[in-house]
Specification:
The chain is an alpha/beta fold. About 45% of the residues lie in helices and about 20% in strands.
Length: about 240
């Protein structure tokens, strides 16, 4: 009888421990924020739709739409040895995505409890498409199309970290973006981290600027340019 009681206690303890471990995988906004800031090698996944993602996302987040039919195939391309922080709007899709990932060999997957909704209630920042230093790396063609479809003019800067002219162009874009806040969104797109997208768009040389309005390309420029040339080409389309 005593052995039976001890066995029951051991089983209950194991269940409590397991449940506790599961709960700890759903992080509060503050804990989620701290975790992704402390773990530079981790991957942040936004599993909302491309349109939701384009409206604002957590810094460093890659878009991987949970409701897209290609989700499972895309997950299989991810490195299962890395740590993943997953979020959506309120937490339902990210919970399902995280469960799927764990069941397919991903050992370190954490969720944002309450999603973007809870994140914003905690006054934590989102990267907005109107910010001059926006970086949207590793995005799909669908997400790219959602970004350029904006009624506000969108200037895409195709760049790479190793590109010297790209680095010299960045402060020019930042100043230009500040001067035209509300009239222009500037998106810096790292082609090294969005190779598939760059290939689909035929981007072979950088820096390359493309200005869109409501999805229509209005102006483009290949190479380094000064602010006067940028203004002459872009301002008329804002």
């Amino acid at each position: 009888m005593n052995r039976y009681k001890l066995f029951l206690v051991a089983v209950v303890s194991m269940l409590i421990s397991a449940c506790s471990g599961q709960r700890e995988r759903a992080l509060s906004p503050a804990d989620f924020d701290e975790a992704i800031r402390d773990d530079a090698g981790a991957v942040v996944l936004d599993v909302r739709t491309p349109r939701e993602y384009a409206e604002g996302f957590i810094a460093r987040a890659q878009n991987l739409d949970f409701n897209n039919s290609n989700f499972t195939a895309a997950v299989e391309e991810l490195d299962k040895n890395k740590t993943y922080y997953v979020y959506c709007l309120v937490g339902a899709r990210s919970a399902d995505a995280a469960t799927y990932m764990r069941s397919h060999g991903f050992k370190s997957v954490y969720e944002l409890k309450g999603g973007i909704t809870a994140w914003q209630r905690s006054d934590l920042p989102l990267v907005q498409a109107g910010q001059a230093n926006l970086r949207t790396d590793a995005i799909s063609m669908e997400a790219y199309r959602a970004i350029i479809a904006s009624d506000t003019a969108v200037l895409i800067d195709f760049y790479a970290p190793w590109c010297g002219p790209c680095k010299r162009l960045e402060p020019i874009l930042q100043e230009f973006g500040r001067e035209h806040t509300g009239r222009l969104k500037i998106v810096r797109l790292n082609i090294d981290e969005s190779k598939q997208l760059a290939g689909e768009l035929g981007i072979t040389q950088i820096p390359l600027l493309k200005l869109f309005k409501s999805g229509e390309e209005k102006w483009s420029y290949l190479g380094l340019l000064d602010k006067a040339t940028l203004e002459a080409g872009a301002v008329q389309h804002l």
